Give the backbone structure.
Amino acid sequence: MDSHKTGIKENDVLICLEDVWKIYQMGEVEVPALKGVSVEIKKGDFVAIMGASGSGKSTMMNLIGCLDVPSKGRIFLKSQDISKLSESDLASLRGNTIGFIFQQYNLIQSMSALENVMLPLEFQEYKDSDAVKRAKEILDLVGLSDKLHHRPTQLSGGQQQRVSIARSLASDPEIILADEPTGALDSVTGKEVLNMLHKLWKEHGKTIIMVTHDLNLAKYAHTTVELKDGEILRIFENNKVN
Amino acid sequence: MKINKCFKHAFNMVLHSKLRSWLTILGIVIGVAAVIAIVSMGEGMQQTMNAQLSGLGGDIVTISPGFSRGGGMFLMRGGAGGTSGGAQATDKEIVLGRSDLQALKGIPEIALIDTNIRGNVDVSYLGKKGKVSVTGVDQKVWSQITTLTIKTGRMLDSADQNVIVIGGRLASSYFDKPVGINKMITIEGSAFRVVGILDDQSTNIYMPIQMAYQVIDDKTNDVYDSLVVKIKNEDQLDEVIVKIDSKLMIARHVTLKNKDFSISSRKEMQQTRADTMSAINTFLLAIAAVSLIVGSVGIANTMFTSVLEKTKEIGIMKAIGARNNDILLIFLFNAAFIGLVGGIIGIILGTILSGLLPSLVGNLPIMRGTTIVSMNSIIMALSVSVSVGILAGIIPAYQASKLKPVDALRYE
């Protein structure tokens, strides 16, 4: 593998899952969603987490994104054990380190595109003028500089997803977590979004983690982690990606 | 997130759920307006009372026949004064007479004594008839003893015979046409000339006592319904009352056990009135406070609904870096904001209401005068409404802040 070309730092592990279990309590039955998953994600990688529905991929994404804590096992994000962090530290870590892109965009409906992109910056206590400047730059980057004051309802699905990508980039995080980012889009717009992610990986050196059930999308990624029934089936690299 | 940003988001939340927010605000508005109006009424009455207490009449003592041994002593004023408080059940009617007057004259601290009788009489003016209360007064001293004031004309004079002084309402609106100075009013068939109109809202007629004996039924000369005494030095009020008490007991051959007269001072009467007033006020205020509590339950309800409705947004905000405290503050500010807006509108409405109150309540003797919206009650209403908002918002806001991001995001 040509690590130089892909920008992956072989020895720089960004996220590490060690024998991670996630068990949900459904009434009296315990349902394990993840069963002892161990994986390392390196800085600068483009990883696809792939699996059918119910395979545990969303659970895994929530854990990587510090939205949830494991039932057992440990997760290290930038060498910090996240189970040892307080809720407020986790929030800061999420805000600084991870940008989320959701299948349903999850924009705040009452806010304009600009306000949505500024929101993570406000949580990071940026100065207003800096936040506006930064948000405008990124919206420009995703090609929406003419839609700054549009509400989500005034934007198409593809545009909303681009706002959501812009929001994920706002506080310049190292990791972009995308949960079925094209799931609600037609194939053409879906492809645009994927190209955008690819560009962020290639040109901006972001670590991209994308959850998908679609093998065709996984082809865009450099590393694919395939899950089945809460366990890792295989991890393989796609050397054609560049 | 900075405080001002939290406030901005809270403000936007209120703006984006207009109807529900406004309905909740309405709950607070009603409570605050009620409190403001009632407090303003109370303060107005307090002020009137203080003015009366500090004004004329602090040196006036009234003696009436009859003695009430029950709890609170309420002296009847007006026509039926002669038989008031008749707890002393004897066959003989209890009256005040010449001997009592003589006894009082022997007290050096007393400056003036006015003898009064009261009764209801038929009156007519330009064909319009009515029945009003007449007070016969000793015209030689009345003008120096009474706390009533003249609007037009003059008080009664020692040489007066067939003349009267009438209350403001009797002059202005009681009859079909207003009664002016020097007009003749017929009382029980005799004509009387109006020489003065009082600056009040009563329909009373004041006339020389000798004339009153003639027009009021069942009155005997030298029998009085009450004696009004002006003492020389207001500071001696309490001592003089004790002195009058003992002198009259001797003159009337009664002891404490079968005492058959009452002594009251204006000060004492006004104090009783003030106490009653403040009790009524407290009661009304309690009712108003209940509506404020209901309003705060409304805020809590709205906030809980809002948290449910915004669960997904809370999840999104947490995913993109919101701390628990940020969410807590946004929701708390939202609740406080509802309280604040409700408080401000409530104060405005309450002030308008308190302006209308005197005319709504009418001319009750209890509520003569104005209402006062003081700065204190405004500050109090604002701080109460905001704290009510915050209190009502605490639990919902805490719940919102404790939502787990992963659960919140999954919420639809």
Observations:
- Strands of chain A lie at 13-26, 29-42, 46-50, 72-77, 80-81, 98-101, 175-179, 207-212, 223-228, 231-237.
- The longest strand of chain A covers residues 13-26.
